[in-house]
Every structure is written in structure tokens, then in C-alpha cells.
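ARCHIVE CARD
Drawer: 12
Card no.: 0347
Subject: one protein chain, sequence and derived structure
Cross-reference: see card 0346
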Amino acid sequence: MKIRKAVIPVAGLGTRFLPATKTVPKELLPIVDIPSIQYVVQEAVEAGIQEIIFVTGRGKDAIEDHFDEAPELEQILADRGHKEMVAMLRRIAEMTEVVSVRQKKPLGLGHAVLCARDLVGDEPFAVMLADDLIDAETPCIRQLVDIFTETQESVIALLEVPLEEVNQYGVIKGKELKSGLYQIEATVEKPAAKDAPSRMAIIGRYVLRPEIFAILQNLPAGRGGEIQLTDGLSRLVQERKIFGCEFLGDRYDIGDKFGFVRATVAYALKRPDLKDKVAEYLKILNR
């Protein structure tokens, strides 16, 4: 079975970034000049995923619009001779097939994934969280897809975090099969440091078998009164194997203000048109 579809939940209110997100979806805030969600979609496309399923909420229509054609804008740019800009907009519109489903109530990540059930159907799929921006030579979700292709079992991305930060993540208990590959025995949502089974945290990239939907459908509310995907994985691992991949790449938590700033600087330093100026400015600040 191939991974053809990716579910990207984008229904959150983005309150950490108010007032910027009062009228603009958080996912459209730019990393330099590219909306952060475009990086996530591009990662999926580079992994061979053919369809993006956005799980949206009120006020998030602009995310879909970003990946749609803009004939009026293209015509204005063409009339002004901006051929490169027109080509760029067309590449975005032609990047992938985009559909959406509405999550009407904020009932948790597990519920958001469940909202996409009818659009996913009875096939394995990816889940990609827009707050995790991952810069990697081999796209992070591609690393997971490769393991799924070999095992035909669910795979989740892992990152070793400091012990004092485990209470911010879902954390796994498992055994390392080889360097960077784990067989997961249990998952725990945001444990206290003293109760954490490891420091291997679940990061926002998953490849899941469709059996997860039946589990989420019948899952009681967990931490915070929400349906937690981590709790669903804890049930799934009792029925089938789940693997964890300690991915290769740099991860930026852009749901956090400092993480967003870090990502902006890091991506600016990768740009030929900006890297020298940014590097020189950072040297000046360091003095």
C-alpha cells in the first residue's frame, strides 16, 4: 500500500500569535516571504503524496485559497511584465490536489484526524502538523513513508528532548531495533518528568494505518478533555506494531514565538539573496 494522502490539521485559533492572527490564519504567517504551511505541503509533495486534506475551522478559507489559482492577480502581474511572479504563483497552484473538511469544535488532535476519515477512506495516510517545520535533506515524512513501505505498519517521528521538556509532548516507551528505529510498546501524553518512560518525544509527523479511525471513533476524552491522538496510538499498539523513526533533520516549533524566530533566521540563511546580509547582521548583533 502506498501513501497517497496527507491530513494537515489547521483548525487552531493561533492565539499565541495574536494580534497577527486575528484575521490571518497562523499557518499563513510567513517564514521570510513564504507562508509556513507551504513548506509543510512541499514536504508532502516531495515525498510523493498526491492529495492534501486540510482539517480547517472558521476563518481558515485563506489557506485553501493560497493553493488555488489567482487569475486576476496573475493577469495584473503579467500586464506589468512580472513573468517570474506569475510562474511562481502557478507553481503553487499546481503543487498538489487540495481538499478540506471542517472541524466544527476544537476537540483535540485525535478528533481532527477523525474528521478526515471519509476523505481518507480505507487506506494508510500521513498526518503532518503545521506547527512543526522540519528542514531535512530527505523530507521527514519521506523517511517515515520509507519505513512504512518496508513494514506496512504505522510509523511516527521521534525526537530526543531534555527531561524537563517531556511534559510538553507525547512520549514513547519502546525498544531500539537499530540506530534511530524503535518498536513502540506504549505512548503517554505529556507525562511528568518523573513518570516519563523515555525522552523520545513524538513530533508532528505520522504515517498511520486506517485502523486508527475506529479507535479514535470510540476513544473517550483524555488530557484536557480532548480526544488525543497519542491515546489512540496507545490503543493501536495493542493491536498492531507501531514503529518510531528518530528522523534526520532540524525541527522548528513554529507554534512557539521563539521557535518561529529561529525558523525565520535559519531559512533566511539558506537563501542566496539574503544569507550574506543576515549573517553580517547577526555578527553585528553578537558584538
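Annotation on reverse: DSSP finds eleven helices and 13 strands in the chain. The domain at 5-255 is CATH 3.90.550.10 (Spore Coat Polysaccharide Biosynthesis Protein SpsA; Chain A).
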